[in-house]
């Protein structure tokens, strides 16, 4: 009788040990996902900030054969580029504000399911906003480089090549940010599903 109780106690202890070991493993994986979330947020913030600054400072002036007339190209001459700068600025501000919550997930990875759900919702909204801004800017950059003969739009970049080069480079950080947001959403979904 005593031997049976000892066997049952031993089985209960091994079950508790395997359950606590599994729980610790899940916590380590979630902490790793939280660290990855923080790193991805910093990368996306740098990319969107770089895109906004590159586009916002894009300007070129061309001299004319008439001494008093100059041709000037600025990002705010084209409303789609202004929209691009605004969307990248909003996304960068959001990412900066979400960093403390991401740090909280690293510290308290077991109690962070509700805040992760909130971040997934806002990440999805910000990804959509960033996609809209990057898409309209990419369409205008394409038209500026190639023009459209059907609509009689000439290739703007034949004259303003420095301006167009800068606007083209500014798209890289924004489209990179979209990819990072996809990874953030997947990371958060995996962390939520492991609860």
TrEMBL record:
Keyword Transmembrane helix: yes
Region feature (Disordered): 1-22
Coiled coil start-end: none
GO annotation, cellular component aspect: plasma membrane
InterPro entries for this protein: CASP/CASPL, CASP_dom, CASPL
Keyword Hydrolase: no
Membrane topology: Multi-pass membrane protein
TM regions (residue ranges): 38-58, 78-97, 117-144, 169-192
Pfam families in the cross-refs: CASP_dom
Casparian strip membrane protein domain sequence ranges: 31-179
Keyword set, alphabetical order: Cell membrane, Membrane, Transmembrane, Transmembrane helix
Compartments (UniProt record): Cell membrane
Quaternary structure note: Homodimer and heterodimers.
Entry's family note: Belongs to the Casparian strip membrane proteins (CASP) family.
Name of the protein in its database record: CASP-like protein
Organism: Carya illinoinensis
Organism taxonomic ancestry: Eukaryota, Viridiplantae, Streptophyta, Embryophyta, Tracheophyta
């Amino acid at each position: 009788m005593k031997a049976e109780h000892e066997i049952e106690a031993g089985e209960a202890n091994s079950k508790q040990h395997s359950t606590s070991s599994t729980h610790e493993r899940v916590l380590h994986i979630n902490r790793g996902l939280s660290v990855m979330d923080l790193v991805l947020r910093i990368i996306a913030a740098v990319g969107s900030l770089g895109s906004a600054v590159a586009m916002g400072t894009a300007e070129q002036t061309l001299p004319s054969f008439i001494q008093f007339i100059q041709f000037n190209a600025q990002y705010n001459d084209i409303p789609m580029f202004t929209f691009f700068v605004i969307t990248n600025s909003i996304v960068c501000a959001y990412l900066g504000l979400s960093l403390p919550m991401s740090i909280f997930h690293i510290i308290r990875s077991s109690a962070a399911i509700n805040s992760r759900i909130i971040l997934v919702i806002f990440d999805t909204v910000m990804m959509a906003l960033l996609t809209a801004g990057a898409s309209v800017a990419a369409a205008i950059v394409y038209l500026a480089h190639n023009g459209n003969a059907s609509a009689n739009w000439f290739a703007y970049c034949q004259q303003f090549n420095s301006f167009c080069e800068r606007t083209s480079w500014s798209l890289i950080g924004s489209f990179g940010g979209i990819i990072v947001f996809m990874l953030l959403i997947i990371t958060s979904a995996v962390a939520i599903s492991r609860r």
